[in-house]
Give the backbone structure.
Amino acid sequence: MKRNAKIVLGTAAVAVAAGGIVAGSLIGANRDAQAGGTSQDQQLNLADVATTDPQSGAKVLVDAESQVVKELGEPGKLTVDGTTKPSFEITVKDVKVMNSCTLRGSGEKIKPENGYFLLVDAEAWLDSSAEKYVDEEIALMPLDASVFGTSAGLNQSVDRNVATVAAFSCDVKDAMDIAVGAGDRVKGKIMLDSPHRSGQVVYDPEGTGGWTWDY
């Protein structure tokens, strides 16, 4: 996948549910969430989040940071209004906490800048139909470390400074592609640099609400 390919789909750009519609978006897409257990102000912020999973009808939790709460191995989904089939899915399958990693090209051990390395095992898929909803030549969803964050736990503020030089310098086997294109499914590992030994990993490209997984 070309590194200069334009990222035209993000959670905010893709979905009404994530905060707005912009040119080149999947218009009318919804995150699979139930805005339960929130204050009135939070309910207003979450008004565009789908109340149920369009496929299963199940209600799921949204935290105070507007993140849809998922369990490890459970996919986060975006679904276009009027359909039940997701247009995008991302799943965090496992998170390994590490005190050091091997420096690429040298074999030396290096320490994280923030406290802990998190080796995130993830998988993502973007339906080929995504190209119908964008004005750009290529439809992509980003998957590099910069679109992730971490928090200390449910309803805690998200730290988005996880794509450090140290994390980038780690030798990661089976590294994840930096984006997934329409019609593609990718899987692999992403290295994050987190201040939290335990908590939540967040996928939120636009910083307006995404999905979170406990680790």
Summary: Residues 1-28, 33-48 have pLDDT under 50 and may be disordered. The longest strand covers residues 88-98.
